[in-house]
Specification:
globular, single chain, alpha/beta, 14 helices, Aspartate Aminotransferase, domain 1, 7-stranded mixed β-sheet, 428 residues, binds ligand KE4
């Protein structure tokens, strides 16, 4: 595959945009090489600036669950744009998508729309702190909740229970209120609750992490978090920016049958437009301005174009719930096919999969948390990534990302993908 024009476009972009990208993962830093510039996308395919057609497993990092340029979404945005793009006052569309989202997701009465998953998670934590009157939160190593300061925290040194900043610009003052636990390690959560009695506002978690590759919650883990939060009067926040409206109509709460107190959304809920959201029961949501004292706001929150894209997307999923089963079957088919050919070539690998989220890890050990995900051979992943790109398949450019399947993928696309793995596996 030729990527000539992408390379020159990247050089030009680097003159005006830090790293040539508006979000770091797009820069291919963890796989090497230069990013592919996309001209357009349709169904399961990306069409790049060099005229290559690429089977897409990024799906814009989740939103494109029905495939790119899905007609009902495009029509909704096109129609809406003819009447203006933003008014700064309420519109009926916001109520329509709010009513539909609340009807699809268990355990929530109200939802507030924002402009990104980061904003949703940041606001959810502020709401949890405002509602409980407590300041500390527990997050999990390897889980990503966007780039607000409270989440850019790594495990503290030694036995220290609170975190330390993992980015310059994040202050110690912020870091001291974020405690780090281990995913699938309920003991580490219990210890933090013990060491910080009565101080923890919330536990925030990706119920099915997609930012370490995919990690599956072990039996009893999520249920254990629910029990610990109940015992300590803390709130359980499910970050469903990736899993919401993807794992099931009602997301991870429905799939795992575990109740969260606050749920955050992004990606699918916006149909590819900048939308985030957070939702909860009335008792909690009524603490939000203008009803209550917890402040949260946004010029473009509930933007008519974004809401019309999200509404069209949610209507599709609501009216065609068979999509979730179709996606599950396609992802299982891909899983089995890749496992077969990687084993044939005796490539040490683990494949984690749930619903339409899947990831391949080049390690012999089970990948069940951040450390085991980090044990993957990144050099092998780099070769895998570029080998697949060369075959016209665009995987997420990092071993620490989930692949996202879209329902426009055909079984021919999946077979082509499996055959490409077979073709390159010998060189891994
Ligand atoms: P955004 O602010 O990027 O819309 O959402 C932040 C976020 C929150 N929670 C979870 C579970 C997420 O996965 C994300 C964002 N996901 C990344 C992919 N790992 C977006 C890609 C990027 O950063 O460019």
């Amino acid at each position: 595959m030729i990527y000539q024009r992408s390379s020159s476009l990247f050089a030009e972009a680097e003159k005006y945009i830090p790293g040539g990208v508006n979000s770091p993962v797009r820069a291919f830093k963890s796989v090497g090489g230069t990013p592919v510039f996309i001209r357009r996308a349709e169904g399961p395919y990306l069409y790049d600036e060099d005229g290559n057609r690429l089977i897409d497993y990024i799906a814009s990092w989740g939103p494109m669950i029905l495939g790119h340029a899905h007609k009902p979404v495009i029509d909704a945005v096109t129609e809406k744009a003819k009447n203006g793009t933003s008014f700064g006052m309420p519109t009926e569309t916001e109520t329509e998508i709010a009513r539909l989202a609340v009807s699809m997701v268990p355990n929530v009465d109200k939802i507030r729309f924002v402009n990104s998953g980061t904003e949703a998670c940041m606001s959810a934590v502020r709401l949890a702190r405002g509602y409980t009157g407590r300041e500390k939160i527990i997050k999990f190593a390897g889980c990503y909740h966007g780039h607000s300061d409270a989440f850019l925290i790594q495990a503290g040194s030694g036995a220290v229970t609170f975190g330390s900043p993992n980015s310059p610009g994040v202050t110690q003052g912020t870091a001291k209120d974020t405690l780090l636990a281990g995913y699938n390690d309920l003991e580490s959560v219990k210890n933090l609750f013990e060491a910080n009695k009565g101080e923890i506002a919330a536990v925030i978690i990706e119920p099915l992490p997609g930012n370490m590759g995919c990690i599956l919650p072990e039996k009893g883990f999520l249920e254990g978090l629910r029990a610990l939060c109940d015992e300590n009067d803390s709130l359980l926040v499910f970050d469903e920016v990736m899993t919401g409206f993807r794992l099931a109509k009602g997301g991870a709460q429905e799939l795992f049958n575990v109740r969260a107190d606050i749920v955050t959304f992004g990606k699918v809920i916006g149909g590819g437009m900048p939308v985030g959201a957070f939702a909860s029961r009335n008792e909690i949501m009524n603490h939000l301005a203008p009803l209550g004292p917890v402040y949260q706001a946004g010029t473009l929150s509930g933007n008519p174009l974004a809401m019309s894209a999200g509404l069209a997307m949610l209507k599709e999923l609501e009216q065609h719930p068979e999509i979730f089963e179709s996606l599950e079957e396609k992802t299982l088919y891909l899983h089995k096919g890749m496992a077969r050919v990687l084993s044939k070539h005796e490539v040490p690998h683990q494949i984690n999969r749930m619903g339409s989220m899947i990831s391949v890890h080049f390690t012999t050990e089970e990948v069940r948390d951040f450390d085991s995900a980090a044990s993957g051979n990144n050099d092998t992943f780099k070769k895998f990534f570029h080998g697949m790109l060369n075959e016209g398949i665009h995987l997420p450019p990092s071993a620490f990302e989930s692949w996202f399947l879209n329902d426009a993928l055909s079984y021919e696309d999946l077979d082509y993908t499996i055959n490409a793995v077979d073709k390159i596996a010998g060189s891994l």
